[in-house]
Amino acid sequence: xxxxxxxxxxxxxxxxxxxxxxxxxxxxxxxxxxxxxxxxxxxxxxxxxxxxxxxxxxxxxxxxxxxxxxxxxxxxxxxxxxxxxxxxxxxxxxxxxxxxxxxxxxxxxxxxxxxxxxxxxxxxxxxxxxxxxxxxxxxxxxxxxxxxxxxxxxxxxxxxxxxxxxxxxxx
Length: 171
Hints:
Largest sheet: 5 strands, parallel
Shape: globular
Oligomer: single chain
Structural class: alpha/beta
Number of helices: 6
Helix content: 40-55%
Radius of gyration: 19 Å
Low-confidence stretches: none
Number of strands: 7
Strand content: 15-25%
Order of helices and strands: EEEHEHEHHEHEH
């Protein structure tokens, strides 16, 4: 209930965290990572996997297959496992405008060599939805959509034009 800790930088005296998690068994823990050792840890310890922003749908499917194989080696049931993917998303009147929104952000955060075409959802709302559905078909059940900016109008386009289509598709 209460914790006391004397750490190098922090000291805590009689601290508690409330309210307790509502979920039976506590809050689900999702791991990221793409290296084989990371995927082994995911299969052994995690309640789900978040595939990072880099990576085509084939990379997600390959990682998912590896996790399933590593879990099978341990006789671990993944029926309630959470499959998630970060996908940078830009909605615009056309693909070129959407790419122009994403490029400065992606180049600054990753590098100019980063695979924008293969890893992102960009274009009209329908084009973005089509791209996201390819990841849903590969097993993604939770989408973490990364917009290139916090422009409220752009976020509204994602919220009102893209997300309802994902929900209707059962993702």
